[in-house]
Amino acid sequence: MTESASTMPSNSVLEDLAKHARLCLLQTNDAYKVLEKIAVLHVSDRALVYWWQGLHNVQARLSYGTASTDGLDLLSEQLEKLDSEEIYLVATDDQLAPWPVFVCCRHDVRGVLADMPFFEYFISTMDCSVLIFDTHHNELVLSIAKKFD
């Protein structure tokens, strides 16, 4: 199920994520299938670097402060509302898709992200019905697929 870090983009953040013990990197084909499902359910323009700019159904935009823990606190609150124990963590980091997709326990996400410098990412439930994007505008953007409203 994992892929070596050498197949990852050279970005050191992505390499560090690939080495993180609490994350499991999906194989490229599996990651592509997850991204495809997310795109079909949520995204109007797949050519965007920031898919949160082209979502079909934004449910909320939640702003947070500039302290490093502000976004993690808000994210943790949102993750507790999810039905999924496991989630996908998609590391976009200002690059075009396709992106690496990791599987992680939702309770481990805060610790993983606290260990890393800030980078663009989003989280998806395992059925891809709910997305949570952390943007470079200190904002979480939540999307729920229309067929799941």
Protein architecture, described:
Strand 5 (121-125) and strand 6 (130-135) form a beta hairpin. The protein has a seven-stranded antiparallel β-sheet, with helices on both faces. By secondary structure, it is of the alpha+beta class. Mean pLDDT is 87; it is low at 1-10. The chain has one domain. The protein has helices spanning 12-19, 28-42, 68-80, 109-114; strands at 24-25, 58-63, 86-91, 101-105, 121-125, 130-135, 139-144.
Write the layout of secondary structure elements.
Blueprint: H1 12-19, E1 24-25, H2 28-42, E2 58-63, H3 68-80, E3 86-91, E4 101-105, H4 109-114, E5 121-125, E6 130-135, E7 139-144
Antiparallel strand pairs: 1-4, 2-7, 3-4, 3-5, 5-6, 6-7
Short recap of the structure:
The chain has four helices and seven strands.
